[in-house]
Amino acid sequence: SPRRLPRRHCLAWSVERLPADRASSNGKRNALVMHLILGAPDDPCCTGVLARLRERGLDAHLLFQPLAAVGRFSWCLDDTGADSRLAIDRLATEMLSSVFVRDVGVLSPVGWKPSDHAYMQAEIRAALLAWLESLRCPVINRMPAAIWYRQLIPLVEWLPLLRRAGLPVPEILLTSDPAEARKFSRRLNGALCTPLTSDASWIITERDWPGLARLQEFAPVCLTEAHGATWPACVIGDQVIWDEDPPAAVVALAPQLLRFADLCGLSWFEAVIASVRRGLGVTMIATFVQLDHFQDAARERILDALANILAGGSSQARQREQVS
Fold first, then answer.
1. What confidence tens digit (pLDDT) does each residue in 153-184 have?
2. Which of 43, 244, 259, 263 registers the highest number of CB atoms within 10 A of its CB?
3. Are 285 and 155 a contacting pair, CB within 8 Å?
4. What is the CA radius of gyration of the chain?
5. 297, 268, 44, 111: CA torsion to nearest 10
6. 11 vs 155: CA distance, rounded Å
7. Whole-structure pTM over 0.90, yes or no?
8. pLDDT digit string, tens, across residues 240-293
9. Exposed, middle or buried by CB within 10 Å (0-12, 13-18, 19+), for 173?
């Protein structure tokens, strides 16, 4: 299963001064524009994007727990709209240029009663979700609430949107019947056990069937057609970045992947296309992109694309609904 990075609150930002003609008329210093990245400081995706922002002459910093006391956050809402301010180390934001939501993490339970910890974690996630939704600047990876609160979604739940987007999928069976499960595996020359509550999967061997039969006494199990070669892709705004050089038939699925992004409201995710019995099929959709699933060249292109959007270097991406 994919390696999970440590989940911690972190805020990375880059600051640039506005031109003199946009300075405050009351003689105060120029306003500041900030490009925010929500993520972990030991995440190579965050550090890679920050390095690129620095190369563009932007001030880059890291901060744990953006809504904690080290920063000062205010969000005012009334019948005319919403306005927010974030002050960090005496720097106050007058304008957010863009936001990249990499990972909002979890609040450490150390020092908290279980009930208080659950309450604070829920408050933090709810506040961040609502705040991100209210922002008028481009936001990469602004998720719908259903995905925000449950990002580990099995492939079977994506099936309706995948089909609407015109993307092929492998055969999947949910059954509590041991005989039906074995028949499915024999017909497809092998099957994977793909739990609905985990991103783990494994090929079912002969010695696994008795254990699966015991599980089926209490609940159905999810089996997925075994697949061959795989080709990962990263969707960023209106771009599809493939790992290495996949076959033309795989690359031809790029428009359908962008259609899927529109349908589910995602602007940044990872997909895996694999060879299956009937040709090709999407075998994974992940809202948390793992850079170590890609070779060096593809990683560089992914980081470049993210930095371009954050720095305002990709006009097409800024125009997409999911990013803007």
1. 999 999 999 999 999 999 999 999 999 999 99
2. 43
3. yes
4. 22
5. -170
6. 31
7. no
8. 999 999 999 999 999 999 999 999 999 999 999 999 999 999 999 999 999 999
9. buried
